[in-house]
Amino acid sequence: MMLRLEKATLGKFGAQDMMGLITSRGWEAILPDALDDNHLLLVSDQFRDLLSGVGWNGDHDPARAALPLTLLLLSKAGAKRSGDSLEVGLETLQEALCLLSTAVDREIVNRMLQRQDAAPIGTGLIQGLQMLVQHAIEQN
User: Fold this and answer.
1) Which of 75, 86, 115, 136 has the greatest number of CB atoms lying within 10 Å of its CB?
2) For the segment 54-96, what is each residue's pLDDT rounded down to a tens digit?
3) Are strands 80-82 and 85-87 parallel, antiparallel or unpaired?
4) Cα Rg of the chain (Å, integer)
């Protein structure tokens, strides 16, 4: 195996850490291309758990950042709000998780290969989420 990583050395990336980034640098600080390497790798691992169903059964650490990050970006992309909560269907959430997971993994590979996309990954990600949200609104 050429590429290996000890997850234990990365630390943690939770909802509090995410809120700290937003407070200090604005919500754009949680886009994949703005995260530092450790946070990027940790959130990639969290997305994999969410998408594989690991942790949906109660042993999921609620302090993790992947789900709140997804919901926050969906709200920035125009998802409907009702009071303090976000109205988003399970299908839209699943598609958003896939989109985010792909964007995060693409950013990891870009950094490893020392390449850059023509447009920042965060820009394309927000556009993709806006299309998802718009599609969900049109379906209802």
Assistant:
1) 136
2) 755 555 565 689 999 999 999 999 888 777 777 788 889 999 9
3) antiparallel
4) 15
Alpha-carbon span 134 to 34, nearest angstrom: 25
Q: Is the pTM of this model over 0.90?
A: no
Looking up tokens 């000890």 gives: 6
CB 62 within 8 A of CB 68: no
The token pair at 99 is 């989109």
Angstrom distance (rounded) from CA 33 to CA 122 = 6
- 109, 60 in Cβ contact below 8 A? no
> Hey, what's the torsion of the CAs at 14, 90, 81, 56, to 10 degrees?
-30
SS (H, E, C) 52-116: HCCCCCCCCCCCECHHHHHHHHHHHCCCEEECCEEECCHHHHHHHHHHHHHHHHHHHHHHHHCCC
27 and 76 Cβ atoms separated by less than 8 Å: yes
Cα–Cα distance, 99 to 86 (Å, whole number): 18
